[in-house]
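Archive record:
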Amino acid sequence: MAALVTAAKAEGQLSVIALPHDWCNYGAIIDGFKAKYGLTVNEITPDAGSGDELNAITNNKDNPGPQAPDVIDVGITFGDQAKAAGLLQAYKVSTWDTIDANLKDPAGFWYGDYFSILTFEVNKAAVANTPADWSDLLKPEYKNQIALAGDPRQSSQAYNAVYASALANGGSLDNAEPGLQFFKTLNTNHNFVPTIAKPGTIDTGATPITIRWAYNALAHKVAAAGNPAIDVVVPATGRFLGVYAQAISAYAPHVNAAKLWMEYLYSDEGQAGWLKGYCHTTRLADLQTRNMYQDLIAALPDIKGAVYPSKAQAAAAKTLITTQWDAVVGADVK
């Protein structure tokens, strides 16, 4: 570690991408990393989606400048895609053996970081009756009220919302098609709003019902502090877990800083940062075995009955949803 810290400090900078400060407590995590090691953190396009992150690596292969990310945090299905495209380099952190074996690439090209359940975040100032399940979203009272927190053609959070809806509408982890049909109906009935939902659009009522990860919804609820009042609901059916993954760019201009960032994230200190952002971490079993951060773990959202797909299932669903969204649903989300 001492040699790695020295090498990283010599590089002086880390370039991250797609890390909103209110996503999984990343604002505090970045501040903690900077304070501990004295490196500058260059934050590229905080609101980018997973597909944008891979494009940023591809488009900056020969560019060591400020638009070239050293590290990425993407939906887990993008891990093997990026590995196959030669966009990643392998690195195993010192806590490698404590990461859930089902949620990492055996060779170390990517490793799951955190996961959560999809919820409905509801602005109570704009919505009289909080929906309790996916079927409720079809009701006429929710006309022009339902949004996704990303473009389902690019965003892991968004296409996983479509995948989750399939589970509540006759589909399965092996069949995401009913999710596309569900959103087609939402769009045809004008319940769907083709605007990427963010805290600002939720607060103003432009996207009063947003399907997003629990950690994003809960963090926004805390930040809103009752203005507006926010409900966060785990749907009664179609309870779905999504996993994200970390990786280092094969073309990272600051490779030692990138490795140090990974060591920080997967240290107990880094894990506590994610837990404070209401994120279940992929080292959770190890932390629980050692009775670490029990108060933070107790505050995590309920994931009882939730499922997450195998890598093959997730990859198939991603391909179906991202390639068929335009033809089936026909909503240009932006």
In short: The radius of gyration is 19 Å.
